[in-house]
Design brief:
This protein is an alpha/beta fold. The chain folds into 2 domains: 155 residues, 3-Layer(aba) Sandwich (Rossmann fold), CATH 3.40.50; 29 residues, no CATH class. The chain is built from 9 helices and 9 strands. α3 packs across α4. It comes from Halocalculus aciditolerans. Pfam families: ABC_tran. InterPro entries: AAA+_ATPase (IPR003593), ABC_transporter-like_ATP-bd (IPR003439), P-loop_NTPase (IPR027417).
Length: 252
């Protein structure tokens, strides 16, 4: 496709006096792996909810795969695979039935056994999801996102509940989907997970994109506005691994 996979302009979401996403200008290039990094509560899941039309913005505009999520939601979801941060499974349905449901919905031709084998659930394909552990449920939700070979894969905290083997497998799948030609956009609050996967990273703080770039660019310098005193910030970060130096002026 021509143009970015995701583009937002002044995207804002308020809940009363609380600003969850604040004037977000975000561009995710077609074909890249973009890591959306920030602490819990930074606005990452809210941003994904806006992009997928699970939520409506207070103001601003956005395009995903060249489509308007509010006007073209059916076409958009046919081309996007989504692993939400908070998802629900049907406890009395098997892993196979979950996959068959998504395959039918997307008019795809995937084989449920092959998709579940990719995520390490082949042995549990005919077990009810109510018997799955948290990590198994996470892998099932990922399998559902992979159905149809999406042009864009959106993964919200995809490593939640996974053991080290599961984390490694998700990283492998991200690279496999990227090699296939998909754009991958995923959020995390753990830098170590992001740096092993992503081409570029954007850091979200209190709903604002405070900095973005390649990992090498971000390692060189990160500029953050401090809510606490600069002295408190220095105490917090001076002994943090990978922080070489801290300096500040005027609350930054």
């Amino acid at each position: 496709m021509s143009g970015p996979a995701i583009e937002t302009v002044d995207l804002t979401k308020r809940y009363g006096n609380q600003v969850a996403v604040d004037s977000l200008d975000l561009t995710v290039r077609d074909g890249e792996i973009y890591g959306f990094l920030g602490p819990n509560g930074a606005g990452k899941s809210t941003t994904i909810g806006l992009l997928m039309d699970y939520l409506r913005p207070t103001s601003g505009s956005m395009q995903v795969l060249g489509l308007d999520p509010q006007q073209d939601v059916v076409d958009l979801h046919g081309r996007v695979g989504v692993l939400p941060d908070r998802f629900s499974l049907y406890e009395d349905l098997t892993g196979r039935r979950h996959l068959e449901f998504v395959i039918d919905t997307k008019h795809a031709t995937n084989d449920p056994e092959s998709v579940l084998e990719r995520v390490g659930l082949a042995d549990a394909i005919d077990r009810e999801a109510g018997e799955y552990s948290q990590g198994m449920g996470q892998r099932l939700a990922l399998a559902m996102a992979l159905v149809g070979g999406p042009d864009l894969l959106v993964l919200d905290e995809p490593f939640t509940g996974l053991d080290p083997h599961g984390v490694r497998r998700v990283r492998e799948i991200v690279h496999e989907e990227h090699d296939r030609g998909a754009t991958v956009f995923f959020s995390s609050h753990v830098l170590g997970q992001v740096e092993l996967v992503c081409d570029r990273v954007g850091i979200l703080h209190h709903g604002r994109l405070v900095t973005e770039g390649s990992l090498d660019e971000l390692r060189s310098a990160v500029d953050l506005e401090a809510d606490a005193s600069m002295e408190d910030v220095f105490v917090a970060y001076t002994d943090t691994p990978d922080v070489n130096a801290t300096s500040g002026e005027g609350g930054r």
